[in-house]
Amino acid sequence: MRTIDWVDGAVEIIDQTVLPGELRVLRLHTVGELIAAIQSLAVRGAPALGVAGAFGVALAARVHADDPGALDNAVRRIETARPTAVNLARGAQRAAALLPLGPDAVLAGACAIRDEEIAASESMASRGADLVVELCGDRPRLLTHCNTGGLCTVTVGTALGVVGELHRRGGLAGVIASETRPLLQGARLTSWELSRWGVEHRVAVDSAGPFLMARGEVDAVILGADRICADGDVINKIGTYSHALGARRAGIPFIVVAPESTVDLATPTGAHVEIEDRGAAEVTAWSDAVNPAFDVTPHDLVTAIVTDRRVIRIDRGEKP
Fold it and tell me: Entry's Pfam families (predicted)?
C-alpha cells in the first residue's frame, strides 16, 4: 500500500495514529482536513510530508480556483503546518509554482513529486545497503530510531528501506528498534513494518541504545532525517543525538538515510532550524514537561549521509 496518494479527487492516507491496532485509510477532501492530519501525525515523515504538501496545494487549487486570496492563504497554511521538516514547505512550493497553469497542472506536478519519492526510496535502499556492507561486513546488527519505512515516504522507506533491502539480500542479522518517545513511532510503526517484512527485531527503550552499542550488540546505527543542513548537521526525531554520541563512543558507523529533497543548503547549521515543540500533553498529564519533537546531531558525529543520488562521507570531510 502507498502511505499517501491521490485517489478519485481526494488525498488518501494511512492513518498512522491508530497503527498497529488498526489499518485505517482516511480520505481527505479539504485543505483543513489535510492540515489536521499533518498536525496530528496521521501522516508524517519528511518525504511523505513533501507529497502531502503538494497534494494539499492540488486540493486548494480545485477549491479556490476563483479566489486568489484564499488560495494564497491555503498555500501558506500548508507550508507552515509543521515547521521542522523542510520537505513539507518544499512540496507545497513546487506545486504552488504551477498554479498559473491551472488545477490539472498542479495535480500533475504533485503526482510527479509522489513518483520522485518512490524512485528515491528505491535508490536509497540499494545505495544504503551497499554502504552498510562496506562498513560493517556481512549480516550486520543494526539499531534504528523513529520510523523510516514506507510509512514515512510513499513506499519502501529511507533507513528502514535499507534494512528491508539487506533482509531481501539475506544480509541482516537483526534489528533493534528504539521505541522513540513520546509517540512510540518505533515501537508502534517500525515494529509493525518489520513484522510485515518478516525481519527479526527487538524493541528497546530509547535510553538503552548507547548502552547496547557499548556492549557490542550493534554494528551500526541507521536512521533518517527531517532536514540536513549545509554543514551536514542532521535534524531528526528527538533521541537521535543520544544515539550519535553512543555510536561515536562505541566506534561504530552512524548512517543517515534521507532523500536529496531533505538536504537544505539554504540552512547553514542546525542552530538555524526551528525545532517544533509538541507540548506537554503528549508526555504527561501531571506536571509541566519539555517536549521537543526533534534534535540536532552535529555533523562531526555522522559517518555518512546516503541520498537517492549520492553517498556523502562526512567522516572524510565531504559536505552536502
Answer: IF-2B
Q: What is the pTM of this model?
A: 0.91
What are the two backbone dihedrals, phi and then psi, of residue 152, each rounded to the nearest 5 degrees? -95, -5
Q: What are phi and psi of 12, to 5 degrees?
A: -110, 135
Cis status, amide bond into 292, omega within 30 of 0 = no
Q: What is the pLDDT of residues 46-88, one digit of tens each?
A: 999 999 999 999 999 999 988 999 999 999 999 999 988 899 9
Report the alpha-carbon distance of residue 307 to residue 138 in Å, rounded: 22
Active site residue 219: no
Closest CA to 41 of 18, 64, 60, 25: 18
- Show the domains of the chain with their CATH numbers: 4-116 (1.20.120.420), 125-316 (3.40.50.10470)
8 A C-beta contact, residue 170 and residue 2: no
Which residues, including other chains, have CB under 8 Å from residue 179's CB and lie 6 or more apart?
Answer: 186, 187, 203, 204, 205, 206
The tens digit of pLDDT for each residue in 150-196 reads: 999 999 999 999 999 999 999 999 999 999 998 999 999 999 999 99
| 197, 164 contact by CB (below 8 A) | yes
Per DSSP bridges, beta strands 220-223 and 141-144 are parallel
